[in-house]
Amino acid sequence: MNTTTLSESSPATVLNASAPDLTRHPPRSPRVRLGGYAILPRSLDKGRATLAGRSGEYHFACALDQQFLQFVGISAEDLRAQLAAGKSDGEILEWVRVHATRPRSAAEIDAWVREQERRAPADGDSRAYFDGLRAQIAPRRDDIASWFDLLDVDDHVSFGGKS
Is the model's pTM score more than 0.70? Predict the structure, then answer.
């Protein structure tokens, strides 16, 4: 006999059960792709964790997430609504493809991802922040050159790893 009630199978309940706990482990790397897009899986992890109250030190719709949102032309609020509805990664990807105000070809996505993977601080304030964080988490590492590099190391160190 199925004893699942309507409230137990609501999108919010499903979301809470499947949302990552970012107080216990980091979101996916910004390098992980969904539909060719880097950053998107990390944003989805942070959005789901935020909705479930388990985001820890991570912030949904941060500057990194905005890179993706601006590239495809969707708002953080609209993406959050899709996450709140309990949609899977595949369903979100399909929603992005349908609702992007700036639809992109596979070649455009690939070029954008390559640019994102190499993106480094572009101004003095960003460089100072980047260098300060790198010095704090990986003082002997001179191979950390991009924001993706820094985020990966920071995630690793934040959960007990050594740089």
Answer: yes
